[in-house]
UniProtKB/TrEMBL annotation:
Residue ranges crossing the lipid bilayer per the database entry: none
Pfam families recorded: 5-FTHF_cyc-lig
Enzyme Commission number: 6.3.3.2
MF-aspect GO terms: 5-formyltetrahydrofolate cyclo-ligase activity
Recorded family membership: Belongs to the 5-formyltetrahydrofolate cyclo-ligase family.
Enzyme class: ligase
Record's protein name: 5-formyltetrahydrofolate cyclo-ligase
Keyword Ligase: yes
Gene3D superfamilies registered for this protein in UniProt: NagB/RpiA/CoA transferase-like (3.40.50.10420)
Cofactor: Mg(2+)
Keywords noted in UniProt: ATP-binding, Ligase, Magnesium, Metal-binding, Nucleotide-binding
Coiled-coil ranges from the UniProt annotation: none
Length: 186
């Protein structure tokens, strides 16, 4: 299936979800995430959910990371399709940008080379670890700046597609994708 068709399919599926179902599935996904061998690292990059787009509620993952006393890094979108990365602290101020994405206003910037694990928003993924995002390329650009051994974990409410037919050479594949019921390892 082509990326544009997958975007339409998944956004339609998401729109049909109730708030209660989304919350239950997000909690289950966070609990499934606990089974991964990723908890010995220090810097974890986590996106904050766009609730209006019915994205996975990452507040459960945020709570796990805080409970494990990890350094949490939040992305901030720049106009040139890049991301800046800020350490979450007690004084971090979160605001919604023009696209409705919650992000830090500013703070302590973290270099991409310090990041050990990246949780990646996505719309769909396939059995080979390829993913479909919103189509702006922010995460592909960011992931290429990270160390080659950074662990890339997609978060999805839905199971894997068999294949994404129009993967580009610049697309960065996942190491894992977590759904509420399954861990995919690539």
């Amino acid at each position: 299936m082509l990326k544009k068709d997958l975007r339409v399919k998944i956004l339609s599926l998401r729109n049909s979800l109730t708030t209660e179902y989304l919350s239950d599935q997000s909690l289950q996904l966070a609990n499934t995430l606990l089974t991964l061998p990723i908890w010995n690292f220090s810097y974890y990059h986590l996106f904050l959910s766009i609730s209006e787009k019915k994205e996975i509620d990452t507040s459960y993952i945020l709570s796990i990371l805080q409970g494990k006393d990890k350094n949490i890094v939040l992305p901030k979108m720049a106009d040139d399709q890049t991301l800046k990365h800020f350490l979450l602290t007690d004084s971090t101020v979160i605001k919604h940008n023009n696209w409705g994405v919650p992000e830090p206003l500013d703070g302590i910037e973290v270099p991409t080379t310090k990041i050990d694990v990246v949780f990646i928003p996505l719309l769909a993924f396939d059995t080979k670890g390829n993913r479909v995002g919103y189509g702006k390329g922010f995460y592909d650009i960011f992931l290429k700046e990270c160390n080659p051994d950074v662990i890339k974990i997609g978060l999805s409410l839905f199971e894997a597609e068999e294949s994404i037919d129009d993967i580009a050479p610049d697309d960065v594949p996942l190491d894992y994708c977590i759904t509420p019921n399954k861990v995919y390892s690539f």
